[in-house]
Design goal:
Bound molecules: nicotinamide-adenine-dinucleotide
CATH architecture: 3-Layer(aba) Sandwich
Distance between the termini: 28 Å
Number of helices: 12
CATH topology: Rossmann fold
Structural class: alpha/beta
Radius of gyration: 20 Å
Number of domains: 1
Shape: globular
Order of helices and strands: EHEEHEHHEHEEHEEHEEHEHHHH
């Protein structure tokens, strides 16, 4: 029996990782630690919450006393760390909360794991999940590799870059067994509708405008969240200690082209005349410090661990749109704020 702590498991990516681990590894005891901020929604995990190997702990990783007492109560074999403040726009208005969770929270977890494993590191692993945004912005050419220098431009990416450096430093200074991955933009079911794809799906359903930053030429690489969870499973079990792996979809899209594709799919699904949804596009003032282009070279994880995405972007986007249309109740509960009472109903 292995005891695994997954932080941020009520969030978008974390919930897919928790589900995969709970279902695939019945011999593991999975602890989902989440503060249930606005981004944490336990309804994401209602299908597995009664599984015998699943446990939920409500708590804040930025609270050192709480983190230490959790590690005193449990001997964890592994930590998969996803908890974070994750929205760039929020980091521009409130950078400090990103420092508290993403930097202090990560360091509290690193300290607790280091203390717990100091005399026996056999089979232990600290897995830190990060973003390609730490590398900054690319011009028209080139790709981010694992050796690209960090050059973060937003308070979000600066806080993630800082946490990545702490993880590496704990590996060098204290020989903490760690792995780290930097992944491109994720999309898929259970994505909080403040992020581009779910926001626009929701706005199209409700005939609201689709605000596109600047001239819409910002370019991102997109990965289906289920494929990210598969990569996390692989790296956790087969990645080499003290290594970084980039994860990406080999799938670059200009924002405006992505929005047009989404509009076409939505018009077809909703039975509206083609072009209805593109009429909702409005260009809005640019985000400060906006990175022009991110693109990931994911050849290391592909060559060394044999990972590649299982779906094309068109397939993933279609599945995502289907999920949102079939789960309008989830969308309504998240946008109205009702989801926040789920924890009280189920766990109190
Ligand atoms: P999310 O915002 O959907 O979920 C974050 C989760 O962390 C939420 O459940 C929230 O309640 C929890 N949380 C926040 N602060 C906490 C705290 N102080 N203590 C405990 N829990 C706390 O984020 P996401 O999109 O699922 O991202 C998960 C991780 O993956 C983050 O570390 C993010 O940087 C990284 N990442 C995200 C993407 C992406 O496209 N979404 C891409 C690459 C990497």
């Amino acid at each position: 029996m292995k005891k695994i702590l997954i932080t941020g498991g009520a969030g978008f990516i974390g919930s897919h990782v928790v589900r995969l681990f709970v279902n695939k590894y019945p011999e593991y005891d999975i602890y989902n630690l989440d503060a249930l901020t606005y981004a944490g929604n336990l309804e994401n995990l209602s299908d597995i919450e009664k599984a015998p190997n699943y446990n939920f702990v409500k708590g804040d990783i930025a609270d050192e006393t709480f983190v230490n007492s959790l590690f005193e109560e449990h001997q964890f074999d592994g930590v998969i760390h996803l908890a974070a403040e994750s929205h760039v726009d929020r980091s521009i208005t409130d950078p400090l909360s990103f420092v508290k969770t993403n930097v202090f929270g990560t360091v509290h977890l690193l300290n607790a794991a280091r203390k717990q494993w100091v005399n026996n590191q056999e089979g232990k692993r600290f897995y830190h999940i990060s973003t390609d945004e730490v590398y900054g912005s690319l011009g028209a050419e080139g790709l981010f590799t694992e050796s690209t220098a960090y050059d973060p431009n937003s308070p979000y990416s600066a806080s993630k870059a800082s946490s990545d450096h702490f993880v590496r430093a704990y590996g060098e200074t204290y020989q903490l067994p760690y792995v780290l991955t930097n992944c491109s933009n994720n999309y898929g079911p259970n994505h909080f509708p403040e992020k581009l794809i779910p926001l626009f799906i929701n706005n199209i359903i409700n005939n609201k405008s689709l605000p596109v930053y600047g001239d819409g030429n910002y370019t991102r690489d997109w990965l289906f969240v289920v494929d990210h969870a598969r990569a996390i499973d692989l790296v956790f079990h087969q990645g080499k200690n003290h290594e970084t792996y980039n994860i990406g979809g080999f799938n670059e899209w200009k924002n405006i082209d992505l929005v047009r594709l989404l509009c076409t799919i939505m018009d077809r699904k909703l039975g509206r005349p083609e072009g209805t949804s593109t009429g909702l596009i409005t260009y809005v003032k640019d985000r400060p410090g906006h990175d022009l282009r991110y693109a990931i070279d994911a050849s290391k994880i592909n060559k060394e661990l044999g990972w590649e995405p299982s779906v094309t972007f068109e397939q993933g986007l279609e599945q995502t749109v289907n999920w949102y249309l079939e789960n309008e109740q989830w969308l309504q509960s998240v946008t109205s704020g009702d989801y926040a009472s789920y924890y009280e109903k189920q766990y109190k």
